Amino acid sequence: MGSQMFYHVLFLLSLYIIQTNGALRFANYYQDNMVLQRAPQRAVVWGFGDTNVLTTLSMNNKIYETMSEDKINNVG
Fold this sequence. Notes:
By secondary structure, the protein is α+β, with helices and mostly antiparallel strands. The protein has one domain. It has one helix and four strands. A hairpin with a 2-residue loop joins strand 3 and strand 4. The chain is globular, with a radius of gyration of 13 Å. The chain crosses the membrane at residues 6-24.
């Protein structure tokens, strides 16, 4: 359980240093000094960025990549 929380926090911190061509910004409800609680078991982190930009995250010797999608409902 402790290592799982560590990885969630590490993931959040890693998002701050992701290098993309556009500016990646978090959803409004992610604020400074937040603490992820035990529930839910999986943290879902989302935000806004430019369309069709590759975002790469390196965590625990694994690399995760995703392509940003088009704006949904004119948000973003």
